[in-house]
Design brief:
The protein is an alpha+beta fold and 160 residues long. It is 24% helix and 46% strand.
Length: 160
């Protein structure tokens, strides 16, 4: 009976303790991996590009309108609050902009470029993500000598 107590039960307690420590270690490592993947999926970024839309007027003549096409290339839904276009502020009242990864239709916002003699425009967009963090992105557009607009987006900045 004493030999049985020393040989079997303590060995089982020892093995059980090692198993418990291994499970705790694996759990901690799994949480660290999950946290890293969570950060990879927490991307907020806007992109701006030139968008040209063709339509016809009442006489059947083709009209080309040029826009800055704003897309959410991050992984999170964002809410557009407002933008400043060449010094004039426009409210967007939390316009929802789905991620391009969601493959929703019309997942962009467009701002019409001027048709006057302007050769440079600046666009500053204020928005927030689904967690309420506030961001700001800048997009510049310059009209080249060929008459085509070159749109240049810049990385986002967090608004504190």
């Amino acid at each position: 009976m004493i030999i049985n107590f020393l040989d079997v039960q303590w060995f089982q307690v020892y093995v059980g303790g090692l198993t418990l420590l291994a499970a705790i270690y694996i759990g901690i490592k799994q949480n660290q991996i999950n946290e890293r993947f969570g950060k990879l999926n927490d991307v907020v970024e806007l992109h701006g590009a030139l968008l040209i839309i063709s339509s016809k007027d009442n006489l059947g003549r083709e009209i080309l309108k040029e826009y800055i096409c704003i897309q959410n290339i991050g992984t999170r839904i964002i809410y557009l609050e407002s933008y400043i276009f060449n010094g004039s502020k426009f409210e967007l009242n939390n316009h929802i902009l789905a991620s391009t990864y969601s493959q929703t239709l019309a997942n962009y916002y467009q701002v019409e470029l001027p048709i006057n003699t302007s050769t440079h425009v600046s666009l500053e967009i204020m928005y927030k993500d689904i967690d309420g963090r506030r961001w700001k992105s800048e997009i510049f557009a310059d009209k080249l000598q060929s008459g085509v607009w070159k749109v240049s987006p810049f990385p986002k900045k967090e608004i504190k």
